[in-house]
């Protein structure tokens, strides 16, 4: 199996990175579809227009509302097709960025992503997720290539609530362990290929950065004043985590995001918080002999990540049939194959009960 490493064409990060938007967009034409949710549109639209004016780039807003369903995507694509746009600019959280990816794929056009929160690593990846109207995951789709440009303005991101930052850490901390499982067992990454050593080292660096600077970085979240630690952790959560999962591969921690939402109370928990608990389940199933689990639990306590299903919203007593359904859905996910042994449904149910 060939090794493949992929990533965005160019990554900008720092206070004021958004000021490069016009220059970046001007590389691809004069008319851009602006895929954005209604809240962020109200906050940033005038600024985005002003930033693009000097490059003579006009913005055509495509407002994202509701769930990322196939119907939502079809509507956005239809709007884009009637507007003769040259590129797609996606601004906001994971939903808006995913919608932008779907539009860019349909238009066969360059994509610029501008995250306004650091709750996950969607800005750098080619993946986007579709749900039904009840937020049940339907499918993970892919652009042919990653976003061309990623603009991460840490002044903007540092204004977002700490809850989103915490979820981003929960999503990112798993990547070292999932990529490690994939590499060890010759599993497939998100390019349907083998992982490179480079991706493994990036995932390792992501974890080390989070453990070293995560607590201090969290103190800056929501203040609007990015610190040096905040900068390093944002890079870990968006760039290192994105490259680590996509080129390194995923395993049980992310496979569990297929099953956990079937447990009543958990479905509305942020993705990164579900992954944080999923990682603890994965490490339990690994039967590790090192001190990594203890180190992680101490760090989880420092940064306020959940360690129990009940902290995600589940009842203290979960019906056995519900756990079996969650386990079956998890094991059916492609990432579950990237584990060092074939798991039984009962093994996974037992591990979930221990959480």
From TrEMBL:
Keywords: Metal-binding, NAD, Oxidoreductase, Zinc. One of its GO terms (molecular function) is glycerol dehydrogenase (NAD+) activity. Glycerol binds at residues 121, 171, 254, 271. It catalyses: glycerol + NAD(+) = dihydroxyacetone + NADH + H(+). Pathway: Polyol metabolism; glycerol fermentation; glycerone phosphate from glycerol (oxidative route): step 1/2. Its EC number is 1.1.1.6. It comes from the Bacteria. The keyword Oxidoreductase applies. NAD(+) binds at residues 37, 94-98, 116-119, 125, 131. Residues 8-154 form the Alcohol dehydrogenase iron-type/glycerol dehydrogenase GldA domain. InterPro entries: ADH_Fe/GldA (IPR001670), Glycerol_DH (IPR016205). SUPFAM superfamilies: Dehydroquinate synthase-like (SSF56796). Binds 1 zinc ion per subunit. Its cofactor is Zn(2+). It holds the Pfam family Fe-ADH. This is Glycerol dehydrogenase. The lineage of its organism: Bacteria, Pseudomonadati, Pseudomonadota, Betaproteobacteria, Burkholderiales.
């Amino acid at each position: 199996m060939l090794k493949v490493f992929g990533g965005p064409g160019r990554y900008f990060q720092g206070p004021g990175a958004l000021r490069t938007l016009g220059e970046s967009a001007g590389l691809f034409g004069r008319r851009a579809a602006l895929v954005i949710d209604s809240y962020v549109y109200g906050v940033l639209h005038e600024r985005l227009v002003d930033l693009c004016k000097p490059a003579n780039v006009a913005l055509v807003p495509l407002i994202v509302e509701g769930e990322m369903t196939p119907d939502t995507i079809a509507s956005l694509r239809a709007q884009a097709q009637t507007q003769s746009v040259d590129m797609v600019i996606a601004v906001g959280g994971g939903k808006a960025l995913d919608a932008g990816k779907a539009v860019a794929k349909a238009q066969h056009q360059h994509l610029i992503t501008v995250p306004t929160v650091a709750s996950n690593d969607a800005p750098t990846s080619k993946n986007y997720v579709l749900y039904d109207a009840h937020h049940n995951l339907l499918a993970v789709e892919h652009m042919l290539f990653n976003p061309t440009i990623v603009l991460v303005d840490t002044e903007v991101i540092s204004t977002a609530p700490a809850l989103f930052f915490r979820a981003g850490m929960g999503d990112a901390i798993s990547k070292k362990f999932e990529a490690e499982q994939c590499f060890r067992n010759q599993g497939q990454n998100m390019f349907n290929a083998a992982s490179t050593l480079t991706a493994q080292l990036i995932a390792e660096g992501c974890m080390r950065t989070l453990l070293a600077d995560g607590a201090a970085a969290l103190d800056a979240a929501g203040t609007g004043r990015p610190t040096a630690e905040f900068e390093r952790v944002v890079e870990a959560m968006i760039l290192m985590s994105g490259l680590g999962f996509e080129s390194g591969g995923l395993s049980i921690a992310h496979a569990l995001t297929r099953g956990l939402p079937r447990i009543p109370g958990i479905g509305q928990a942020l993705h990164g918080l579900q992954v944080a608990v999923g990682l603890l389940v994965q490490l339990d199933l690994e039967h590790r002999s090192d001190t990594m689990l203890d180190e992680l639990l101490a760090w989880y306590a420092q940064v306020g990540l959940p360690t129990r299903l009940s902290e995600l919203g589940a009842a203290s007593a979960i019906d056995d049939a519900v756990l079996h359904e969650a386990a079956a859905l998890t094991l059916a996910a492609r990432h579950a194959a990237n584990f060092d042994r074939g798991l039984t449904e009962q093994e996974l149910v037992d591990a979930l009960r221990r959480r």
